[in-house]
Design a protein that fits this description.
single chain; 4 helices; alpha+beta
Amino acid sequence: MSGQNVPRLKKFYAKELLPKLMGELSIKNVMDVPNLKKIVVNMGLGEAVQNPKALESGCDTLRAIAGQKPVVTLARKSIATFKVRENMPIGAMVTLRGHRMWEFFDRFINVALPRVRDFRGIQSRFDGLGNCSIGIKEQIIFPEVDYDKVDKIRGMNITLVTNAKDDKAGKLLLKHLGVPFRN
């Protein structure tokens, strides 16, 4: 670990944010302070049923954005109206942890989100356990995606998973890390 470069946001969390959160949430134990555990980036590729190239294109996009190979997700059950059969590939996802997670989070908050058209902040969608889900309508907001190679504009879901005990602590952590929430 000493030979690796520690991500900027991870240093900020450890040195400045940890004591600040302990004071604001009146927590005595350092291990109880909310932390970012993982980030899950999910892209639904329903058109892969008719167009198998869509799955390959979506996986390439996720690979460029996240920096690691995505896992192809399969349909859990057959749905006749959508012409989907059980175990058919219909999406791709990446789970980021450690340094890759912190680097992705930094790029997402400081580079990608400001590129969203008419951006006024993120609506706070929490699940009751401090985890926040963010819907992105266009994958081209990420600078890693080559606009000329994009065959279709696709959306994705980004879930920020924390170890906070409630939404208040999770939102406070993410707000201090730089997530621009809508008021």
